[in-house]
Design goal:
Elements lengths: L11 E7 L9 H11 L4 E6 L6 H4 L8 E5 L6 H15 L8 E6 L2 E3 L6 H5 L4 E3 L10 H11 L16 E4 L3 H8 L7 H18 L17 E2 L2 E2 L20 E3 L12
Parallel strand pairs: 1-2, 1-4, 2-3
Antiparallel strand pairs: 4-7, 5-10, 6-7, 8-9
Helix pairs in contact: 3-6, 5-7
């Protein structure tokens, strides 16, 4: 007798910021396979940031009604440019009411294990980073410029950090998020690094002035913490093989691509 699989009572959208260079491994196919293994009806929006050879990756992925490949045709690049395109697509196609949460990530920040989004629904969590960190306010000049432009350069003592600019937002909050994002233009890696800091302010407000995350503080990812063995060790982001067994919900393999990176 065929086993009955209980259907999730939430629907998800994944917006993946994509930038492919020949010579760097792509995990996109594996990422999408994991998404649809755990969440069969999830919509995946892959937004390419002007990759010269994107077909190297896209041609390996089986076409599916729940996979859309989009191009970033705006001035803002890196993650936030891709996220703007993803939000715009959802709004223009009147899809927000059909879904519950949008997961915004880089293409090398990969889903590994199924997260139960009932935790966020039951806890009334409407926005949070995947991983947090303490607010070091590196690149503060850029952070101040962006937050001043948005009119929300305050409450620094209440904020955390949005590691790798990857986060989750309830569809109920997408209009407000999009209203902020369209005011930001990002073109260089340093601006992307600053976004990890100022996004914490946006997510804190979108989450009704509370901090949450789903995979914990990044200081507990690696094997050592304060010179001692880290009992909560999950993976080392500079050396992890994303295909290996990792206990966190997402795994990040750092590639350090910048606006100066070239195809091999």
């Amino acid at each position: 007798m065929e086993e009955l699989v209980e259907k999730d009572n939430y629907k998800l959208v994944f917006v993946i910021a994509h930038k492919y260079f020949r010579g760097y491994p792509s995990y996109l196919k594996y990422y999408i396979e994991n998404i649809h293994k755990f969440y069969t009806d999830a919509l995946v929006l892959v937004v390419d940031n002007n990759s010269a050879f994107k077909e190297d990756v896209f041609d390996t992925i089986e076409p599916n009604d729940n996979i859309k490949f989009l191009d970033n045709d705006i001035a803002c690049k890196f993650e936030l440019g891709a996220y703007q395109i993803g939000c715009r697509y959802l709004k223009e196609n009147n899809l927000l009411d059909e879904y519950d949460f949008v997961i915004f990530t880089q293409d090398n920040f990969i889903l590994k294990n199924k997260y139960d989004f009932n935790i966020m629904l039951d806890g009334d969590i409407t926005a949070c980073p995947i991983n947090s960190y303490y607010p070091d306010w590196c690149d503060k000049d850029i952070c101040d410029k962006v937050l001043n432009q948005l009119g929300i350069n305050d409450n620094h003592d209440k904020l955390t950090f949005c590691w790798c600019s990857s986060f989750i937002v309830s569809t109920k909050k997408i209009d407000k998020l999009y209203g902020w994002l369209v005011q930001i233009v990002m073109t260089v890696r340093r601006e992307s690094c600053a976004a990890e800091r100022y996004l914490a302010r946006l997510l804190w407000e979108l989450n009704e002035f509370k901090n949450n995350d789903i995979d914990g503080d990044i200081r507990f990812l690696g094997p050592m913490w304060n010179g001692k063995h880290n009992a909560e060790y999950k993976y080392e982001c500079h050396s992890v093989n994303p295909y290996d067994d990792v206990k966190s919900y997402f795994v990040k393999r750092i590639q350090d691509k910048t606006e100066r990176t070239k195809d091999a």
